[in-house]
Amino acid sequence: xxxxxxxxxxxxxxxxxxxxxxxxxxxxxxxxxxxxxxxxxxxxxxxxxxxxxxxxxxxxxxxxxxxxxxxxxxxxxxxxxxxxxxxxxxxxxxxxxxxxxxxxxxxxxxxxxxxxxxxxxxxxxxxxxxxxxxxxxxxxxxxxxxxxxxxxxxxxxxxxxxxxxxxxxxxxxxxxxxxxxxxxxxxxxxxxxxxxxxxxxxxxxxxxxxxxxxxxxx
Amino acid sequence: xxxxxxxxxxxxxxxxxxxxxxxxxxxxxxxxxxxxxxxxxxxxxxxxxxxxxxxxxxxxxxxxxxxxxxxxxxxxxxxxxxxxxxxxxxxxxxxxxxxxxxxxxxxxxxxxxxxxxxxxxxxxxxxxxxxxxxxxxxxxxxxxxxxxxxxxxxxxxxxxxxxxxxxxxxxxxxxxxxxxxxxxxxxxxxxxxxxxxxxxxxxxxxxxxxxxxx
Lengths: 218, 214
Hints:
With 218 residues, chain A is α+β, with helices and mostly antiparallel strands. Chain A is built from 6 helices and 9 strands; from the N terminus they run βααβββββαβαββαα.
C-alpha cells in the first residue's frame, strides 16, 4: 500500500482521540497511516485516473475525455483538498462529484466539488463529514470521481475515475521525440579540442605582444 | 431554485475562484438535485448540502495548513522562467502521460504531493518534440549540483529545493526510488537524455535531477 502520510505533532494523542471518537472505522484509517501516525494534522492522499469510456452505462460517457484527480483527506479537520483535471471534453463542466460506487456501478453523491475550480484545474477545498472521509479511506475503490456537462447529465457523465490509494506506476517515462536536444548538446570532445586551440592562440598572442613591447627577456 | 438538503455535510471552498460565482454555481449545482419530492436519478443520489464559500482567494496557509498536501503547480529552474505543472497518470501503453505541450510539466499523481514530509515528488517533462522543438526540461542538462529549484503548489506555497545529484540511466532501468513515497523527502525532475535513435524517434536514457529541500 502506498498511502502517503503527513505527520504532525502529538501523533499518539491524535490517534487515540480519533480511535475513541469514531470507533472501528478509525482502525482502517490508522492502518492507512501506518504506525505512529494518526496525528492531528494527518492527511491521506488518494488519486483517480479514468475516462469517458468508464461511464456507466457503457458508451454513455463523452468519447476521448480523460479525468485525473488528486484528493487529500484530513479526517481530523473534516476537509478534502482536491485538484481535478478533465481534458478532451467539448463543453464546460456543470458539476463534479465524488460518488459512492464500485467500479462498474453508479451510486449516490457523497461530496460535491466546485465546478468552476474543476474547469480551471485549480486546487479547491471542501468540508466533509469526517465519517464520510473515514469510509472513503477505508475503501477508496468503493468511490469514484464523476464529472458532468449539459450533454452528459446524471446518471452518466463526461468522464469517470475510480479512487485509489495505489496509483499505477509507469513502465517508461518517454519525454523526447525530436532529437533536437541530442544534436544541440555540445560535444565534450569538440569542446575540449576547442579549448586547447583557444589556449594555444592566447599563448601565442601573449608572446607576440611581449616581443613587441620589449618585455620578452628571452 | 431547487432546495438544499438541510444536513451540511460538505462545504465548498474553492482554492482560487470567485466566491460569488462559486456560490452561485454551488447553488445551481444542487440542482444535482431538484426538489426533495422528486426522486433523484440513479447514480446522482443526494448531493450533500453546500454552505457558504469561505473566501474568494486561496485560504491563507495557517500553521496546520503548512502540512496540507497539494499538487505542484509550477517549477522554476535557476535563472529561468517557470513552467506550469499538470496532473499526470499512466497511459494505456504504460507510459507516464506528461503534457504534450513541451513548455508544460507533469506531476505523477501517485508520487508525494508538496507538503509531504516523506517520499519523492516526481515531475517529468519533454526535453523536446518532433513538432514543437526544445521543451522546458531541455534546461535540466544545464543545471548543476547546488542549483536551486523553486516549486509552487496549489495552496500558493513556494518551496525551495537544492539539486543534490544528477544521473542518466537507460529508461528501462529507471530506479524505483523515483516512485518512492515513504523514504527521504526529494524532488525528482525527469526528462529524456543520452543518444537519440532516429529510427524509433526516442532517446535511450532518462536524465534524473534529484533535489532535496533547501
